[in-house]
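User: Could you write out the 3D structure of this protein bound to arginine? I've included everything you need below.
Assistant: Certainly. Input first, then the structure.
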Amino acid sequence: MYSLLEQLRQSFSQALVNAFGEDYAETDPLVVPAAKPEFGDYQSNVALSLAKQLKQKPRDTAQQIIDHLDISELCDPPEIAGPGFINLRLKPTALQNLLQTIAQDSQLGAEKAETPQRVIVDFSSPNIAKEMHVGHLRSTIIGDCIARILEFRGHDVLRLNHVGDWGTQFGMLIAYLREAYPEALTKADVLAIGDLVSLYRDAKKRFDEDEQFQKTAREEVVKLQRGEETSVQAWKLLCEQSRREFQVIYDLLDVELTERGESFYNPFLSDVVQELEKTGLLEEDQSAKCVFLEGFSNKSGERLPLIVQKSDGGYNYATTDLAAIRYRIREDGAQRIIYVTDAGQSNHFAQVFQVAKRAGWVPETVELVHVPFGLVQGEDGKKLKTRSGETVRLRDLLDEAIARSRQDLEKRFAQEGRSESEEFIQKTARVVGISAVKYADLSRNRTSNYVFSYDKMLALQGNTAPYLLYAYVRVQGISRKGNIDFTTLANQSLSLEDDSEFVLAKHILQLSDILKEVEKDLLPNRLCQYLFELSQKFNQFYDRCPVLQAEEPKRTSRLMLADLTARTLKLGLSLLGIEVLERM
Ligand code: ARG
């Protein structure tokens, strides 16, 4: 076991049993990283709560714990502070040994989950024939990061794109397609349809202006649902064209997804309603079939219904999600299902989860989690818009980030008198631009809104992707300058001396704990904060301690520390979906 925190927790648990008996085997030893460096590296407050139960003075309880605690390999003798806190200070040798061990591990000591789960991450999920908007961008970035971390932890992850590929809007679109692009339909020619957003706009205009067309559109919905061949073909054409547009974004972001849209669950929708009927949950309200919810009421205090079948017999978004839950648990064997959408859908998920549970479709062992996120705002604090007031196209947003990152690079290169190849500039601008957008999103607590600012996200200073990428580049610079092959260092010995070396070393060793936290709380900003602090601590070390100029054995030891920092950064960034650069 590499995690210091885990090792200490286990030793404490053992000490509690030895001191107070088996009854205390399950007591949380409350070991946490120390709040301040004066308190050492870790601390435990368990004596304070235990003393009450044991009717002792907390300091006496603390002493009894210490008397039974065997951590002399890892720590200096523990100290009791204040009312009964136990403070722990790591031994330099323990740190050195552990660092040496993880240096030889390709996963840098980050552990796998003890019991891997089958996990579904439902993310991105844009709607066919509509523009993918910034909300979908957030979902794509956050969902991909969560999936990457869970995969790394050894879980069996299914990344599902629950695209909105069904619904009445397709009647209008197909009717319009038949009118405006008959030849696209006969030749099944996807490209002939052109830009779907304008197609949608034109179809909508036609729909709003012409009653006859509205009737045709409605008939088209029925035909599609009946599975009539040309309607299905037109629908497929629209989906295919959308899919191509989405794929451009996924390629740019390097995100992988398996598409399983709403339409996939069509065959199961009537079963959902039937099963709800059987369980006695189904009620009728104004001729719609619904389940009345617990804990949700309207302004006048009446219970709110979740409608699963409308009065016209049609099903809706919630019915599809209910069918999806059943399918994912029964057929996919999911043990944890994670939904990444904006916070605006929180009620939807709370309601759907509740009904699924009351219907008995969710075994105790299965966890359903909604992972909500806030809005993306423009620098004026309002909803993000283009200068002319339109919604921002994702493609344009990403291109702009790349273009601005390119401008910054060119300016910097000119100042430094560097001449770089076009290929280098293009790749660097792309990596920096895309990373900046991803990192700006991931580094905030996802539940809050965030202000989209190219200037801030592209800055070389501050909690930004360029700052982190640059720390990595600095280490690679050392290797180039000193002609060092880091791979030959892995089994050398380390000796820490300077304070900044200790600080950095201890931080490196926390990776495993951080990843476990993110796995549990699904907050990628924790990993970002960890990597940001890692870069800062590395920079402090590098400013204070000469590396290439140092005498041996210090030189080798410092090179190892630098390399470990870089490898930790590279691994951590890869889990955020960010690729590193060797130079920038
Ligand atoms: N298509 C939906 C939207 O754009 C998101 C779907 C989220 N996933 C789900 N299972 N409901 O808002």
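The mean pLDDT is 94.
User: Perfect, thank you.
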